[in-house]
Write a structure and sequence with these properties.
single chain, mainly beta, four-stranded antiparallel sheet
Length: 678
């Protein structure tokens, strides 16, 4: 089947919990830019994070998509995690190096200003290693990753390749080139961010995030562009490879939403990219997320999804076992393969077992964390929930929930009671050791679905089906769903009958109750904060002293000082330009949270105590913020953490623990967080 080239516009429809409501007004004015008083950071001494406390796994690690090997000494390898070129989750692992074939690894981040590592490439002629990063551009090391120097900050970069002695980089502004690896310029500007690049016989092929493939001659700045039709292929081009034996034969893999379904597609051109045909992907492969040509067998294309396959003719496939949920595929000497996946890096060959080489690297994407004493309870991307009873020294995998997202919670007033909300709720009454499912309808709809009354085990939980409560903290029953599309919940510590629920049904707003959730009224509709996920409902936190309510979406912070009747915008959260240009909705999270009208991904809001009064902590896709004035001003407290993407926040006494995207669980001491400094 041939494919037309037209512009693609996709939309996602989300389903409500039911019910309805009307707005009582609208917010006044646009959201202001970040105030000048917002500081980028504080002295490191103000907050120090531990190294990763896990979870540890002897068989695999979290997502590592970037890989490079020194061909002169194959025992020397480098790995990193970021977004990569695929349409998947983003992680901030930094770079790791091994000199013993993967038996041990050490962090190698000195000089890096961005730890979102999209790709790595080693140039043996110059003994130079290059790192493509999401917001920091390109970094170069000539001393085995002991130190890094930024050689380009023009744009965020997804991939670097080398051809004919020249480097080519896919970036948020187009294709960058360099003849020496130290000076870079834009050679092919593109209308959308470039995810991937391939070069062959003097021609550059760039795959863009809007579904376009750009073709340009190296010597001619003009370029032609093709965009695949909406019903024929997904919108994101994440890999392009050219047959080294036949420059007219090109493959492109793509992923995205088509008709509301997350879909992979593999395309082939036999005429140098002028026309394209669909290549049928075997169902057992579950996608064509990574592709690469054989170094031994002419015209053979390896394809990796959750399995591994090859095709010699763009029609038929041979299939074998692969490794993990593949993101990248590197062909080494003799057709040995390195698979970068959501479970780490593994080495092997087609038809043989793959051996993980990054096991025990604690680079998991931890969606949520709960803590009490030495007990840690976490949920993760691509892994089952896990528990540690010794502060992270050892971990046990739990047979509860699924391996995508989920929220963990420990009842602060009955710490032997633990919860995991995913596709339903599971409750433990023995300190998070064993869990039993409860007949609570719905699935996870929020990153903060739990709230417990002060000095009581009584706990609320919000699911996609509505609001539930357990008077004893264990046995949940439904409260009539008078809030349409409930997403997030918070209680007023001064008065537990005051319940606040965030929703985006009919516009982002907060619903408030003064009778324990029996009846609700709606706040004003929040002013649009700019680019955001569709229907991004806010997370909520209530100041335990003055009752101010802080609400944060992916892109803005709001506050109410009248009990939730009206919310005023305070600050627009500005993501770095490169990440804004290249970012897209995490498809795994979108699917996991997609059963509701609204949802939030990644952010948390929580007040903690300090010597000077309540301190607000806000986790965002760009770091962890602290405020002592109810978010009028905020300051970064990322400090020495490798990952800058914080998700879950949990506090137990003076201990604060956070789940990160790429560094697992990190903890610190809240007694060092003096509110007067914020």
């Amino acid at each position: 089947m041939r494919y037309a080239f037209v512009l693609l516009i996709a939309a996602v429809a989300l389903v409500s919990c039911g019910g309805g409501g009307s707005s009582s007004g609208s917010s006044s004015g646009a959201v202001p830019a970040v105030p000048a008083s917002v500081a980028p950071g504080l002295p490191t001494s103000s907050l120090t994070w531990t190294g990763s406390l896990g979870p540890w796994n002897s068989q695999n690690s979290g997502k590592l998509n970037a890989f490079a090997i020194d061909p002169r000494n194959p025992s020397v390898m480098y790995a990193g995690g970021g977004t990569g070129t695929e349409d998947g989750v983003t992680t901030d692992t930094g770079i790791f190096k091994t000199s013993d074939g993967g038996a041990s690894w050490s962090a190698a981040n000195a000089g890096l200003t961005d730890t979102t590592i999209n790709s790595l490439i080693f140039d043996p002629q110059a003994n130079a290693l290059y790192a493509a990063t999401e917001t920091g551009g390109i970094f170069r090391s000539t001393d085995g990753a002991n130190s890094w120097q930024q050689v380009s900050n023009v744009a965020g970069v997804r991939q670097i390749v080398q051809a004919g002695g020249t480097f080519f980089a896919a970036s948020s502004v187009g294709i960058l080139t360099s003849s020496d690896g130290t000076t870079w310029s834009i050679s092919v500007p593109t209308q959308a961010a470039a995810d991937t690049v391939a070069v062959s016989s003097g021609t550059i092929f760039a795959g863009l995030v809007n579904g376009a493939i750009v073709r340009a001659a190296i010597s001619v700045p003009a370029a032609t562009m093709h965009v695949f039709a909406a019903l024929d292929a997904p919108p994101v081009i994440h890999a392009i490879v050219v047959d080294p034996q036949n420059a007219q034969s090109i493959y492109a893999s793509m992923t995205g939403m088509v008709g509301g379904i997350y879909t992979d597609a593999l395309m082939h051109s036999s005429d140098g990219g002028s026309t394209w045909s669909s290549v049928p992907i075997p169902a057992t492969l579950r996608g064509a997320q990574a592709i690469a040509f054989s170094a031994v067998v002419p015209h053979r294309l390896y394809v990796a999804g959750t399995g591994l396959a090859y095709t010699d003719d763009a029609r038929t496939f041979a299939i074998a076992q692969g490794y993990g949920d593949a993101r990248t595929l590197t062909v080494l000497d003799g057709d040995r393969l390195a698979i970068g996946s959501d479970q780490g890096i593994a080495l092997g060959s087609y038809g043989s077992n793959f051996s993980p080489v990054t096991a025990r690297l604690a680079v998991n994407i931890v969606r949520s964390v709960a803590v009490h004493g030495s007990t840690l309870l976490v949920t993760m991307q691509d892994f089952a929930p896990a528990r540690s009873s010794d502060g992270g020294a050892t971990w046990q995998t739990l047979s509860v929930g699924s391996t995508e997202n989920g929220v963990a919670y420990i009842n602060p007033n009955a710490p032997n009671v633990c919860y995991i909300l995913d596709n339903g709720i599971s409750v433990s009454t023995d300190g998070c050791i064993t869990f039993a499912n409860q007949s609570v309808g719905g699935r996870i709809a929020s990153t903060e679905p739990f709230a417990t009354e002060a000095n009581s085990p009584r706990t609320y939980v919000v699911t996609s089906n509505g609001l539930y409560v357990a008077n004893d903290g264990v046995h949940f029953y439904p409260i009539a769903c008078s809030v349409p599309g409930p997403v997030d919940i918070a209680l007023d510590p001064r008065n537990p009958k005051h319940v606040y629920i965030a929703s985006s049904s009919g516009g982002v707003a907060v619903w408030r109750s003064s009778d324990g959730g029996v009846t609700f009224s709606r706040s004003n509709v929040f002013a649009p904060p700019g680019p955001s996920y569709p229907n991004d409902a806010p997370v909520l936190a209530v100041d335990p002293v003055n009752g101010a309510i802080v609400a944060m979406t992916q892109t803005a912070i709001y506050r109410s000082t009248d009990g939730g009747a009206t919310f005023t915008p305070l600050t627009q959260l500005q993501l770095p330009l490169a990440r804004n240009a290249m970012r897209r909705v995490d498809p795994d999270a979108r699917l996991a949270f997609g059963g509701t009208t609204g949802y939030n991904i990644g952010e948390r809001a929580q007040f903690v105590t300090s010597a000077s009064g309540p301190l607000l902590l806000l986790s965002t896709p760009s770091g962890l913020l602290a405020s002592s004035d109810d978010a009028t001003t905020t300051h970064s407290v990322v400090q020495n953490a490798i990952s800058h993407e914080f998700e879950g926040i949990a506090v137990d006494g003076n201990r604060i623990c956070a789940g990160t995207d790429g560094q697992g669980v990190v903890c610190s001491d809240t007694s060092k967080l003096a509110a007067s400094r914020y």
